[in-house]
Amino acid sequence: MDTSQRNINDLPSPKGQPIVGHLLQFNSEAKHTVLENWVKEVGDVFRINMLGKPFLVSANPDINLEILKSRPDKFQRFFKINEILTEMGVVGVFNAEGEQWKQHRELTAEALNVKNVRSFFSTLQMMTERLYGRWCAFAKAKKEIDVQKEMVRYTVDITTSIAFGYDVNTLEKEGDVIQDHMEKIFPMINSRITAPIPIWRLIKSKKDKELDVALKAIEDLVHQFIEEAKARLHDNSELQENPTNFLEALLVEQKKNPDFTDQEVFGNVFTILLAGEDTTSNSISWTLFYLAQHPEVYQKVREEAQQVFGSTRCATSHEQVAELKYTEAVCMEAMRLKPVTPNLYMQAKEDVVIQDLAIPKGTTIMMQNKVGQTDEAHFTDADQFIPERWIANGCPHHTAHSPQMMRAFGAGPRFCPGRNLAIQEMKMAISMICKNFDLELAVKPEEVKEIFTFTMFPEGLVVKLGGV
Ligand code: HEM
Protein backbone atom coordinates (compact mmCIF):
# COMPACT_ATOMS: atom_id res chain seq x y z
CA MET A 1 0.00 0.00 0.00
CA ASP A 2 1.09 3.55 -0.79
CA THR A 3 2.44 5.05 2.49
CA SER A 4 0.65 8.35 1.90
CA GLN A 5 -2.64 6.48 2.09
CA ARG A 6 -4.70 6.10 5.24
CA ASN A 7 -6.05 2.72 6.04
CA ILE A 8 -9.15 1.98 8.10
CA ASN A 9 -7.09 1.12 11.20
CA ASP A 10 -5.50 4.61 11.08
CA LEU A 11 -8.90 6.24 11.49
CA PRO A 12 -10.15 7.54 14.83
CA SER A 13 -12.85 5.65 16.67
CA PRO A 14 -15.41 6.78 19.27
CA LYS A 15 -15.17 5.24 22.72
CA GLY A 16 -16.56 1.69 22.68
CA GLN A 17 -16.68 -1.26 25.09
CA PRO A 18 -14.51 -4.36 25.45
CA ILE A 19 -15.47 -7.34 23.23
CA VAL A 20 -18.80 -5.95 21.97
CA GLY A 21 -17.15 -2.76 20.70
CA HIS A 22 -19.83 -0.26 19.65
CA LEU A 23 -22.63 -2.80 19.35
CA LEU A 24 -24.68 -1.79 22.38
CA GLN A 25 -24.42 1.93 21.66
CA PHE A 26 -25.43 1.40 18.04
CA ASN A 27 -28.25 -0.95 18.96
CA SER A 28 -30.57 1.97 19.58
CA GLU A 29 -33.89 3.12 18.12
CA ALA A 30 -32.14 6.24 16.83
CA LYS A 31 -29.16 4.79 14.96
CA HIS A 32 -28.86 7.90 12.84
CA THR A 33 -28.47 10.07 15.97
CA VAL A 34 -25.83 7.73 17.37
CA LEU A 35 -23.84 8.15 14.14
CA GLU A 36 -24.38 11.94 14.17
CA ASN A 37 -23.11 12.17 17.73
CA TRP A 38 -20.03 10.12 16.89
CA VAL A 39 -19.31 12.49 13.98
CA LYS A 40 -19.33 15.35 16.52
CA GLU A 41 -17.02 13.35 18.79
CA VAL A 42 -14.36 12.14 16.33
CA GLY A 43 -14.84 13.79 12.92
CA ASP A 44 -16.48 12.92 9.62
CA VAL A 45 -14.59 9.70 8.79
CA PHE A 46 -14.02 7.05 11.45
CA ARG A 47 -14.27 3.37 12.26
CA ILE A 48 -16.40 1.43 14.68
CA ASN A 49 -16.53 -2.28 15.45
CA MET A 50 -19.24 -4.65 16.50
CA LEU A 51 -18.12 -7.91 18.08
CA GLY A 52 -14.72 -7.37 16.43
CA LYS A 53 -16.12 -6.70 12.93
CA PRO A 54 -14.95 -3.29 11.65
CA PHE A 55 -17.20 -0.78 9.87
CA LEU A 56 -16.20 2.42 8.12
CA VAL A 57 -18.44 5.41 8.88
CA SER A 58 -18.32 8.38 6.55
CA ALA A 59 -20.17 11.67 6.83
CA ASN A 60 -17.74 13.22 4.37
CA PRO A 61 -19.86 14.45 1.41
CA ASP A 62 -17.05 14.06 -1.17
CA ILE A 63 -16.18 10.51 -0.16
CA ASN A 64 -19.87 9.60 -0.02
CA LEU A 65 -20.56 11.04 -3.45
CA GLU A 66 -17.64 9.11 -4.92
CA ILE A 67 -18.96 5.88 -3.40
CA LEU A 68 -22.51 6.48 -4.61
CA LYS A 69 -21.28 7.29 -8.11
CA SER A 70 -18.99 4.24 -8.26
CA ARG A 71 -21.93 1.82 -8.26
CA PRO A 72 -22.64 -0.73 -9.52
CA ASP A 73 -19.02 -1.68 -10.33
CA LYS A 74 -16.99 -0.78 -7.24
CA PHE A 75 -19.68 -0.54 -4.57
CA GLN A 76 -23.04 -2.16 -3.89
CA ARG A 77 -25.62 -1.88 -1.15
CA PHE A 78 -24.59 -3.60 2.11
CA PHE A 79 -24.94 -7.34 1.29
CA LYS A 80 -27.34 -7.94 4.18
CA ILE A 81 -29.99 -5.74 2.55
CA ASN A 82 -30.22 -8.19 -0.32
CA GLU A 83 -29.88 -11.22 1.97
CA ILE A 84 -32.70 -10.09 4.28
CA LEU A 85 -35.06 -8.96 1.52
CA THR A 86 -34.43 -12.11 -0.53
CA GLU A 87 -35.17 -14.20 2.57
CA MET A 88 -38.47 -12.31 2.79
CA GLY A 89 -39.17 -13.30 -0.81
CA VAL A 90 -38.46 -9.85 -2.26
CA VAL A 91 -36.04 -9.42 -5.16
CA GLY A 92 -36.51 -6.01 -6.71
CA VAL A 93 -34.58 -2.98 -7.90
CA PHE A 94 -33.66 -1.75 -4.39
CA ASN A 95 -31.82 -4.92 -3.37
CA ALA A 96 -30.80 -6.47 -6.71
CA GLU A 97 -27.17 -6.12 -7.79
CA GLY A 98 -25.15 -6.49 -11.02
CA GLU A 99 -26.94 -7.39 -14.27
CA GLN A 100 -30.20 -8.15 -12.47
CA TRP A 101 -30.20 -4.64 -10.98
CA LYS A 102 -29.60 -3.07 -14.43
CA GLN A 103 -32.63 -4.86 -15.85
CA HIS A 104 -34.87 -3.98 -12.89
CA ARG A 105 -33.62 -0.40 -12.84
CA GLU A 106 -34.40 0.19 -16.51
CA LEU A 107 -37.96 -1.04 -16.06
CA THR A 108 -38.57 0.90 -12.86
CA ALA A 109 -37.07 4.15 -14.09
CA GLU A 110 -39.18 3.85 -17.26
CA ALA A 111 -42.37 3.30 -15.26
CA LEU A 112 -41.61 6.35 -13.08
CA ASN A 113 -40.41 8.70 -15.83
CA VAL A 114 -41.66 12.28 -16.13
CA LYS A 115 -44.27 11.38 -18.76
CA ASN A 116 -45.76 8.65 -16.58
CA VAL A 117 -45.71 10.80 -13.46
CA ARG A 118 -47.79 13.33 -15.42
CA SER A 119 -50.28 10.58 -16.19
CA PHE A 120 -50.56 9.78 -12.46
CA PHE A 121 -51.89 13.30 -11.84
CA SER A 122 -55.59 12.32 -11.72
CA THR A 123 -54.78 9.72 -9.02
CA LEU A 124 -52.91 12.32 -6.99
CA GLN A 125 -55.75 14.79 -7.37
CA MET A 126 -58.37 12.26 -6.26
CA MET A 127 -56.36 11.30 -3.15
CA THR A 128 -55.69 14.96 -2.30
CA GLU A 129 -59.44 15.68 -2.52
CA ARG A 130 -60.07 12.73 -0.20
CA LEU A 131 -57.50 14.02 2.25
CA TYR A 132 -59.32 17.37 2.15
CA GLY A 133 -62.64 15.67 2.96
CA ARG A 134 -61.12 13.69 5.80
CA TRP A 135 -59.42 16.72 7.34
CA CYS A 136 -62.59 18.85 7.00
CA ALA A 137 -64.31 16.29 9.22
CA PHE A 138 -61.43 16.47 11.73
CA ALA A 139 -61.49 20.29 11.70
CA LYS A 140 -65.25 20.32 12.34
CA ALA A 141 -64.93 17.81 15.16
CA LYS A 142 -61.95 19.77 16.55
CA LYS A 143 -60.10 16.48 16.63
CA GLU A 144 -56.36 16.38 17.22
CA ILE A 145 -54.54 14.37 14.61
CA ASP A 146 -51.34 12.39 14.38
CA VAL A 147 -49.86 13.81 11.18
CA GLN A 148 -47.52 10.94 10.39
CA LYS A 149 -50.32 8.34 10.51
CA GLU A 150 -52.49 10.55 8.32
CA MET A 151 -49.81 11.02 5.73
CA VAL A 152 -49.16 7.28 5.56
CA ARG A 153 -52.80 6.85 4.48
CA TYR A 154 -52.32 9.45 1.76
CA THR A 155 -49.20 7.86 0.31
CA VAL A 156 -50.47 4.27 0.74
CA ASP A 157 -53.53 5.15 -1.33
CA ILE A 158 -51.47 6.86 -4.03
CA THR A 159 -48.75 4.21 -4.17
CA THR A 160 -51.02 1.15 -4.27
CA SER A 161 -53.07 2.80 -6.98
CA ILE A 162 -49.98 3.62 -9.05
CA ALA A 163 -48.32 0.27 -8.33
CA PHE A 164 -51.18 -2.02 -9.33
CA GLY A 165 -54.24 0.11 -10.03
CA TYR A 166 -55.98 -0.91 -6.82
CA ASP A 167 -57.80 1.64 -4.71
CA VAL A 168 -57.32 0.59 -1.07
CA ASN A 169 -58.90 3.88 0.04
CA THR A 170 -57.46 4.03 3.54
CA LEU A 171 -58.37 7.74 3.58
CA GLU A 172 -62.08 6.94 3.64
CA LYS A 173 -62.20 3.50 5.23
CA GLU A 174 -60.84 2.43 8.59
CA GLY A 175 -58.84 -0.71 9.27
CA ASP A 176 -57.35 -1.52 5.89
CA VAL A 177 -55.27 -4.65 6.07
CA ILE A 178 -52.54 -3.67 3.60
CA GLN A 179 -51.52 -0.69 5.67
CA ASP A 180 -51.49 -2.74 8.88
CA HIS A 181 -49.25 -5.32 7.23
CA MET A 182 -46.86 -2.84 5.63
CA GLU A 183 -46.38 -1.10 8.99
CA LYS A 184 -45.00 -4.33 10.44
CA ILE A 185 -42.53 -4.90 7.62
CA PHE A 186 -40.37 -1.75 7.61
CA PRO A 187 -39.12 -1.88 11.21
CA MET A 188 -38.33 -5.58 10.85
CA ILE A 189 -36.21 -5.00 7.75
CA ASN A 190 -34.27 -2.37 9.67
CA SER A 191 -33.73 -4.48 12.77
CA ARG A 192 -32.74 -7.59 10.79
CA ILE A 193 -30.26 -5.73 8.59
CA THR A 194 -28.46 -4.38 11.63
CA ALA A 195 -28.83 -7.51 13.82
CA PRO A 196 -25.42 -9.04 14.68
CA ILE A 197 -26.91 -12.57 14.86
CA PRO A 198 -29.89 -13.83 12.79
CA ILE A 199 -31.74 -15.22 15.80
CA TRP A 200 -35.05 -15.39 13.88
CA ARG A 201 -33.60 -18.29 11.86
CA LEU A 202 -33.42 -20.33 15.07
CA ILE A 203 -36.30 -19.06 17.20
CA LYS A 204 -39.19 -16.89 15.99
CA SER A 205 -40.41 -14.16 18.33
CA LYS A 206 -43.98 -12.82 18.26
CA LYS A 207 -42.81 -10.03 15.97
CA ASP A 208 -41.14 -12.51 13.59
CA LYS A 209 -44.35 -14.51 13.38
CA GLU A 210 -46.36 -11.35 12.73
CA LEU A 211 -43.90 -10.45 10.00
CA ASP A 212 -44.43 -13.84 8.32
CA VAL A 213 -48.20 -13.32 8.38
CA ALA A 214 -47.85 -9.78 6.99
CA LEU A 215 -45.51 -10.90 4.20
CA LYS A 216 -47.72 -13.82 3.22
CA ALA A 217 -50.81 -11.59 3.10
CA ILE A 218 -49.10 -9.00 0.90
CA GLU A 219 -47.61 -11.67 -1.35
CA ASP A 220 -51.01 -13.35 -1.85
CA LEU A 221 -52.63 -10.03 -2.63
CA VAL A 222 -49.98 -8.96 -5.14
CA HIS A 223 -50.08 -12.36 -6.86
CA GLN A 224 -53.85 -11.99 -7.13
CA PHE A 225 -53.29 -8.58 -8.77
CA ILE A 226 -50.73 -10.15 -11.11
CA GLU A 227 -53.25 -12.77 -12.28
CA GLU A 228 -55.97 -10.15 -12.76
CA ALA A 229 -53.64 -7.84 -14.70
CA LYS A 230 -52.46 -10.74 -16.92
CA ALA A 231 -56.08 -11.53 -17.76
CA ARG A 232 -56.76 -7.84 -18.61
CA LEU A 233 -53.68 -7.63 -20.81
CA HIS A 234 -54.31 -10.95 -22.55
CA ASP A 235 -56.70 -9.75 -25.26
CA ASN A 236 -56.26 -6.02 -24.99
CA SER A 237 -53.66 -4.71 -27.41
CA GLU A 238 -54.43 -1.09 -26.46
CA LEU A 239 -53.53 -1.87 -22.84
CA GLN A 240 -50.38 -3.63 -23.97
CA GLU A 241 -49.37 -0.44 -25.81
CA ASN A 242 -50.35 1.90 -22.96
CA PRO A 243 -50.23 0.12 -19.60
CA THR A 244 -52.09 2.10 -16.94
CA ASN A 245 -50.03 1.20 -13.89
CA PHE A 246 -46.62 -0.06 -12.81
CA LEU A 247 -47.68 -3.73 -12.63
CA GLU A 248 -49.14 -3.72 -16.15
CA ALA A 249 -45.95 -2.06 -17.46
CA LEU A 250 -43.85 -4.81 -15.86
CA LEU A 251 -46.05 -7.57 -17.28
CA VAL A 252 -45.77 -6.10 -20.80
CA GLU A 253 -42.01 -6.19 -20.33
CA GLN A 254 -42.20 -9.76 -19.06
CA LYS A 255 -43.82 -10.84 -22.35
CA LYS A 256 -40.75 -9.53 -24.23
CA ASN A 257 -38.40 -11.10 -21.72
CA PRO A 258 -39.67 -14.41 -20.33
CA ASP A 259 -36.59 -14.65 -18.04
CA PHE A 260 -38.26 -11.96 -15.96
CA THR A 261 -40.18 -14.16 -13.54
CA ASP A 262 -43.48 -13.59 -11.71
CA GLN A 263 -41.44 -13.53 -8.51
CA GLU A 264 -39.41 -10.61 -9.92
CA VAL A 265 -42.60 -8.83 -10.96
CA PHE A 266 -43.84 -9.32 -7.40
CA GLY A 267 -40.48 -8.16 -5.99
CA ASN A 268 -40.57 -4.90 -7.90
CA VAL A 269 -44.19 -4.07 -7.14
CA PHE A 270 -43.45 -4.78 -3.48
CA THR A 271 -40.32 -2.60 -3.71
CA ILE A 272 -42.35 0.33 -5.02
CA LEU A 273 -44.74 -0.06 -2.08
CA LEU A 274 -41.83 -0.20 0.36
CA ALA A 275 -39.75 2.57 -1.22
CA GLY A 276 -42.57 4.94 -2.09
CA GLU A 277 -44.82 5.06 0.96
CA ASP A 278 -43.02 5.82 4.21
CA THR A 279 -40.31 7.95 2.58
CA THR A 280 -42.89 10.30 1.10
CA SER A 281 -45.33 10.34 4.02
CA ASN A 282 -42.52 11.04 6.48
CA SER A 283 -41.14 13.83 4.31
CA ILE A 284 -44.59 15.47 4.14
CA SER A 285 -44.94 15.07 7.91
CA TRP A 286 -41.62 16.77 8.64
CA THR A 287 -42.55 19.58 6.25
CA LEU A 288 -45.75 20.15 8.25
CA PHE A 289 -43.71 20.04 11.46
CA TYR A 290 -41.77 23.11 10.27
CA LEU A 291 -44.77 24.84 8.70
CA ALA A 292 -46.67 24.63 12.00
CA GLN A 293 -43.83 26.54 13.66
CA HIS A 294 -43.41 29.16 10.92
CA PRO A 295 -46.71 30.98 10.36
CA GLU A 296 -45.10 33.45 7.95
CA VAL A 297 -43.95 30.57 5.72
CA TYR A 298 -47.37 28.91 6.05
CA GLN A 299 -49.01 32.13 4.88
CA LYS A 300 -46.71 32.37 1.85
CA VAL A 301 -47.53 28.80 0.80
CA ARG A 302 -51.23 29.61 1.21
CA GLU A 303 -50.93 32.76 -0.90
CA GLU A 304 -49.09 30.89 -3.62
CA ALA A 305 -51.82 28.21 -3.66
CA GLN A 306 -54.56 30.85 -3.77
CA GLN A 307 -52.84 32.54 -6.67
CA VAL A 308 -52.25 29.32 -8.62
CA PHE A 309 -55.49 27.39 -7.95
CA GLY A 310 -57.92 30.28 -7.68
CA SER A 311 -61.13 28.95 -6.15
CA THR A 312 -60.38 25.21 -6.27
CA ARG A 313 -59.33 23.31 -3.16
CA CYS A 314 -56.24 21.75 -4.66
CA ALA A 315 -54.19 21.73 -7.86
CA THR A 316 -56.25 20.65 -10.85
CA SER A 317 -53.43 20.12 -13.33
CA HIS A 318 -49.84 19.00 -13.50
CA GLU A 319 -48.95 22.50 -14.80
CA GLN A 320 -50.36 24.10 -11.67
CA VAL A 321 -48.18 21.89 -9.49
CA ALA A 322 -45.15 22.94 -11.53
CA GLU A 323 -45.99 26.58 -10.73
CA LEU A 324 -45.75 26.01 -6.96
CA LYS A 325 -42.13 27.15 -6.70
CA TYR A 326 -42.27 28.42 -3.13
CA THR A 327 -44.03 25.26 -1.93
CA GLU A 328 -41.26 23.22 -3.57
CA ALA A 329 -38.65 25.34 -1.76
CA VAL A 330 -40.43 24.59 1.53
CA CYS A 331 -40.31 20.84 0.79
CA MET A 332 -36.61 20.99 -0.13
CA GLU A 333 -35.79 22.87 3.06
CA ALA A 334 -37.64 20.33 5.21
CA MET A 335 -35.81 17.46 3.45
CA ARG A 336 -32.50 19.24 4.00
CA LEU A 337 -33.06 19.47 7.75
CA LYS A 338 -34.90 16.16 8.17
CA PRO A 339 -33.79 13.72 5.46
CA VAL A 340 -35.88 10.61 6.05
CA THR A 341 -33.07 8.36 4.81
CA PRO A 342 -30.13 9.95 6.66
CA ASN A 343 -28.02 6.77 6.44
CA LEU A 344 -27.21 4.52 3.49
CA TYR A 345 -25.25 1.30 3.94
CA MET A 346 -22.78 0.29 1.21
CA GLN A 347 -20.13 -2.35 0.61
CA ALA A 348 -16.88 -2.29 -1.39
CA LYS A 349 -16.85 -4.88 -4.20
CA GLU A 350 -13.09 -4.47 -4.73
CA ASP A 351 -10.12 -2.67 -3.14
CA VAL A 352 -10.76 1.04 -3.74
CA VAL A 353 -8.85 4.22 -2.88
CA ILE A 354 -10.91 7.38 -2.44
CA GLN A 355 -8.94 10.56 -1.80
CA ASP A 356 -6.19 9.14 0.44
CA LEU A 357 -8.38 6.51 2.06
CA ALA A 358 -7.80 2.85 1.20
CA ILE A 359 -11.02 0.86 1.43
CA PRO A 360 -10.44 -2.90 1.21
CA LYS A 361 -12.81 -5.19 -0.68
CA GLY A 362 -15.73 -6.28 1.50
CA THR A 363 -15.65 -3.22 3.81
CA THR A 364 -19.08 -2.12 4.97
CA ILE A 365 -19.59 1.62 4.88
CA MET A 366 -22.23 3.40 6.92
CA MET A 367 -22.88 6.70 5.23
CA GLN A 368 -24.20 9.56 7.26
CA ASN A 369 -25.56 11.94 4.64
CA LYS A 370 -27.29 14.52 6.80
CA VAL A 371 -24.09 16.14 8.05
CA GLY A 372 -23.21 17.76 4.69
CA GLN A 373 -26.76 19.06 4.29
CA THR A 374 -26.69 20.79 7.65
CA ASP A 375 -23.12 22.09 7.60
CA GLU A 376 -22.57 25.84 7.94
CA ALA A 377 -19.88 25.66 5.22
CA HIS A 378 -22.54 24.63 2.69
CA PHE A 379 -25.66 26.42 3.93
CA THR A 380 -25.63 29.73 5.84
CA ASP A 381 -27.55 29.48 9.13
CA ALA A 382 -27.61 25.79 8.38
CA ASP A 383 -29.77 24.79 11.34
CA GLN A 384 -32.51 27.31 10.49
CA PHE A 385 -35.62 26.60 8.40
CA ILE A 386 -35.32 29.16 5.57
CA PRO A 387 -37.12 28.02 2.38
CA GLU A 388 -36.12 31.25 0.60
CA ARG A 389 -32.60 29.87 0.21
CA TRP A 390 -33.96 27.55 -2.51
CA ILE A 391 -35.39 30.40 -4.59
CA ALA A 392 -32.95 32.06 -7.04
CA ASN A 393 -32.03 35.46 -5.53
CA GLY A 394 -34.51 34.60 -2.77
CA CYS A 395 -32.40 35.45 0.22
CA PRO A 396 -29.33 37.65 -0.23
CA HIS A 397 -28.14 36.99 3.35
CA HIS A 398 -27.83 33.27 2.84
CA THR A 399 -24.76 33.28 0.68
CA ALA A 400 -23.53 29.72 1.27
CA HIS A 401 -25.90 27.51 -0.69
CA SER A 402 -24.68 24.17 -2.05
CA PRO A 403 -27.66 22.18 -3.40
CA GLN A 404 -25.22 19.54 -4.64
CA MET A 405 -24.73 18.55 -0.97
CA MET A 406 -28.31 17.28 -0.83
CA ARG A 407 -28.42 13.50 -0.59
CA ALA A 408 -32.07 13.16 0.42
CA PHE A 409 -32.64 11.07 -2.71
CA GLY A 410 -29.16 9.50 -2.83
CA ALA A 411 -26.88 10.08 -5.84
CA GLY A 412 -25.28 8.36 -8.82
CA PRO A 413 -26.79 5.54 -10.91
CA ARG A 414 -28.98 4.31 -8.04
CA PHE A 415 -30.42 7.75 -7.33
CA CYS A 416 -34.10 7.51 -6.28
CA PRO A 417 -36.19 6.93 -9.43
CA GLY A 418 -39.31 8.07 -7.52
CA ARG A 419 -38.06 11.62 -6.88
CA ASN A 420 -40.39 13.37 -9.34
CA LEU A 421 -43.41 11.51 -8.08
CA ALA A 422 -42.45 12.14 -4.44
CA ILE A 423 -42.00 15.89 -4.95
CA GLN A 424 -45.30 16.01 -6.81
CA GLU A 425 -47.10 14.25 -3.93
CA MET A 426 -45.47 16.51 -1.36
CA LYS A 427 -46.43 19.70 -3.19
CA MET A 428 -50.01 18.54 -3.76
CA ALA A 429 -50.59 17.67 -0.10
CA ILE A 430 -48.80 20.68 1.40
CA SER A 431 -50.42 23.26 -0.87
CA MET A 432 -53.91 21.80 -0.29
CA ILE A 433 -53.44 21.76 3.49
CA CYS A 434 -52.07 25.32 3.70
CA LYS A 435 -54.79 26.68 1.40
CA ASN A 436 -57.70 25.15 3.29
CA PHE A 437 -56.73 24.68 6.93
CA ASP A 438 -55.08 26.46 9.81
CA LEU A 439 -52.68 24.20 11.60
CA GLU A 440 -51.25 24.41 15.09
CA LEU A 441 -48.94 22.06 16.98
CA ALA A 442 -50.79 20.38 19.86
CA VAL A 443 -47.47 19.42 21.46
CA LYS A 444 -44.22 21.23 22.14
CA PRO A 445 -41.79 20.92 19.18
CA GLU A 446 -39.23 19.24 21.44
CA GLU A 447 -41.76 16.49 22.25
CA VAL A 448 -41.71 15.39 18.61
CA LYS A 449 -39.10 12.62 18.39
CA GLU A 450 -37.04 11.37 15.45
CA ILE A 451 -37.54 7.60 15.19
CA PHE A 452 -35.51 5.59 12.72
CA THR A 453 -37.05 2.41 11.35
CA PHE A 454 -35.28 2.18 7.97
CA THR A 455 -36.72 5.66 7.33
CA MET A 456 -36.81 8.43 9.91
CA PHE A 457 -40.21 9.67 11.03
CA PRO A 458 -41.64 12.17 13.54
CA GLU A 459 -43.22 10.40 16.49
CA GLY A 460 -45.78 12.37 18.45
CA LEU A 461 -46.42 15.01 15.80
CA VAL A 462 -49.95 15.92 16.85
CA VAL A 463 -51.71 18.97 15.45
CA LYS A 464 -55.01 20.83 15.82
CA LEU A 465 -56.81 21.95 12.71
CA GLY A 466 -58.91 24.98 11.99
CA GLY A 467 -60.83 25.59 8.76
CA VAL A 468 -60.38 28.76 6.70
C1 HEM B 1 -39.58 11.97 -0.34
C2 HEM B 1 -39.66 10.71 -0.74
C3 HEM B 1 -38.50 9.82 -1.06
C4 HEM B 1 -37.22 9.84 -0.57
C5 HEM B 1 -36.64 10.81 0.46
C6 HEM B 1 -36.50 8.76 -1.21
C7 HEM B 1 -35.16 8.47 -0.98
C8 HEM B 1 -34.48 7.44 -1.60
C9 HEM B 1 -33.07 7.15 -1.38
C10 HEM B 1 -32.14 7.92 -0.46
C11 HEM B 1 -32.77 6.08 -2.14
C12 HEM B 1 -31.39 5.41 -2.25
C13 HEM B 1 -30.67 6.09 -3.39
C14 HEM B 1 -29.24 5.66 -3.58
O1 HEM B 1 -28.87 4.53 -3.20
O2 HEM B 1 -28.46 6.47 -4.11
C15 HEM B 1 -33.96 5.68 -2.86
C16 HEM B 1 -34.02 4.61 -3.74
C17 HEM B 1 -35.19 4.21 -4.35
N1 HEM B 1 -36.41 4.85 -4.31
FE1 HEM B 1 -36.86 6.54 -3.30
N2 HEM B 1 -37.35 8.10 -2.05
C18 HEM B 1 -38.58 8.71 -2.00
C19 HEM B 1 -39.71 8.36 -2.72
C20 HEM B 1 -39.80 7.32 -3.61
C21 HEM B 1 -40.97 6.97 -4.37
C22 HEM B 1 -42.29 7.75 -4.34
C23 HEM B 1 -40.68 5.86 -5.09
C24 HEM B 1 -41.52 5.07 -6.04
C25 HEM B 1 -42.81 5.13 -6.13
C26 HEM B 1 -39.30 5.50 -4.78
C27 HEM B 1 -38.62 4.42 -5.31
C28 HEM B 1 -37.30 4.13 -5.08
C29 HEM B 1 -36.62 2.97 -5.63
C30 HEM B 1 -37.26 1.91 -6.53
C31 HEM B 1 -35.29 3.02 -5.17
C32 HEM B 1 -34.17 2.03 -5.48
C33 HEM B 1 -33.33 2.51 -6.67
C34 HEM B 1 -32.14 1.62 -7.01
O3 HEM B 1 -31.62 0.94 -6.15
O4 HEM B 1 -31.73 1.65 -8.19
N3 HEM B 1 -38.80 6.42 -3.88
N4 HEM B 1 -34.99 6.55 -2.52
From TrEMBL:
For activity, the cofactor(s) needed are: heme
Write the protein's name.
Cytochrome P450
SUPFAM superfamilies in UniProt? Cytochrome P450
Q: Which residues form the signal peptide?
A: none
Q: Which InterPro entries match?
A: Cyt_P450, Cyt_P450_CS, Cyt_P450_E_grp-I, Cyt_P450_sf, Cytochrome_P450_monoxygenase
Keywords on record: Heme, Iron, Metal-binding, Monooxygenase, Oxidoreductase
The UniProt entry's sequence similarity note says: Belongs to the cytochrome P450 family.
Source organism per UniProt: Owenweeksia hongkongensis (strain DSM 17368 / CIP 108786 / JCM 12287 / NRRL B-23963 / UST20020801)
Family annotation (PROSITE patterns):
CYTOCHROME_P450
Q: Where does heme bind?
A: C416
Q: Which GO terms describe its molecular function?
A: heme binding; iron ion binding; monooxygenase activity; oxidoreductase activity, acting on paired donors, with incorporation or reduction of molecular oxygen
